[in-house]
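Annotators were shown the component list below and the corresponding predicted structure, then asked to write short factual statements about the assembly.
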Amino acid sequence: ETGVTQTPRHLVMGMTNKKSLKCEQHLGHNAMYWYKQSAKKPLELMFVYSLEERVENNSVPSRFSPECPNSSHLFLHLHTLQPEDSALYLCASSPNHRYGYTFGSGTRLTVV
Amino acid sequence: GESVGLHLPTLSVQEGDNSIINCAYSNSASDYFIWYKQESGKGPQFIIDIRSNMDKRQGQRVTVLLNKTVKHLSLQIAATQPGDSAVYFCAENIKGNKLVFGAGTILRVKS
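Structure shown to annotators:
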């Protein structure tokens, strides 16, 4: 365990479904991130939260909606996804934006 | 724009040999670099980092070399073991901005 826990580990959803990914950290970190990892591509930063405030949204489609209710929890709400959204979604946290990124094990998402 | 890339997508080495994984970066303003290891079914895990005021840094069985002249970063793994099989990513950071990751190199260790 890295200190960053993601659930579920695997998710299969239809294009009309609504689901949510959850991330939890108890490392006392101030920043949390969502990354998308597709095969043979660099990690794509999706969203950044700093002290529960969204500070970055990297042109992510609106079918992905993040939520950070407190400094320990981060959600990614999914609706009307496309098959090309199938990927590994990784959550990370860090004490600041520069150092100490700790990643969860990810949620393997398959959109059918 | 900034980019971090890897020369070799897949590296196969014999158990016990040394491994060298390479990474090129394009932004000369990057001043902090990190290597991550990602095993199957897990998220990336920190291996070693280096600041731009250093050329070399050693850890346990790993060494990172930084050549700022050619914007090149390498990770050396001594006496490679089967447990070293994973995807290795380099990442760069520019003075407080978010990390930029490379695509990754697959390391396969043959027994």
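Statements collected:
1. The mean pLDDT of chain B is 89.
2. The longest strand of chain B covers residues 86-93.
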